[in-house]
Amino acid sequence: MSGHSKWHNIQGRKNAQDAKRGKIFQKISRDLYQAAKAGDPDPANNAQLRLVIDKAHAANMPKKNIDRAIAKASGIGGAKFEEVTYEGYAPGGVAVMVSALTDNKNRTASAVRSAFSHSGGSLGASGSVAYMFNRQGLIEILRDDLDTSEDDMLMDALDAGADDMKATEEKFQIFTDPSSMTAVRDALQEKGYDLDTAEVTMIPENRTAVPEDKVKQYRHLIDELTANDDVADIYETGILPDDDDDDEE
């Protein structure tokens, strides 16, 4: 039994690492798509796309994943991809928005609906949870090896055109109007800051604690959505009981 338990623990850690890696790849794929869609799909002529590709390489993202994300944006192979958003509730009443890039809306809708159903959640109509989120630009700068005080960072962010800033022990989070994110990003880079994240995202107005007895179902929903190649991003309001100590989320 002890051998089985050891294998189970190792397998559990591996599954958690795989899930975390999947979420990182998912986010990078979305960034690749957006960079290629906004400019030239050839990285030689698109500085932002080159930066995201470098980030993908640093995360050991497979080349086929990189090529697939860029192909979606450029229409290579004749497929036309659309951006689709689904809204619903996870177990425990947690609001969830799913952003997808798909060449077959029926396939994607069916898969997303199944993910909610399998986990005890429910898919809702358009607008059912969107009002719980604010669309904002988000720029994150890691504090490791950064010799900048919170006051100086705030002044630089405001000078660059940001609206607000939040500081944690690990990073500075800078919030902007969606239309200003690119300009603020460029201004901060010109000041010499190395940005970890620069994106337009959906930020929840409030958070919802996931009940202890719903955590397993909640995780299952997020994992199933993350594993879907059509899903580009997942926005949700959930707070897990162990969020402060949990590296998986």
Automatic annotation (TrEMBL):
Sequence ranges assigned to domain TACO1/YebC-like N-terminal in this UniProt record: 5-75
Disordered: annotated segments: 1-21
Compartments, as annotated in UniProt: Cytoplasm
MF terms (GO), sorted A to Z: DNA binding
Keywords attached to this entry: Cytoplasm, DNA-binding, Transcription, Transcription regulation
Domain TACO1/YebC-like second and third: residue ranges: 81-236
Source taxon at top rank: Bacteria
Gene Ontology terms describing biological process: regulation of DNA-templated transcription
Family under the similarity heading: Belongs to the TACO1 family.
Primary localisation category: cytoplasm
InterPro entries, per the entry: Integrase-like_N, TACO1_YebC-like_2nd/3rd_dom, TACO1_YebC_N, Transcrip_reg_TACO1-like, Transcrip_reg_TACO1-like_dom3, YebC-like
Any Gene Ontology CC annotation: cytosol
Protein name stated in the entry: Probable transcriptional regulatory protein FC49_GL001200
Taxonomic lineage of the native organism: Bacteria, Bacillati, Bacillota, Bacilli, Lactobacillales
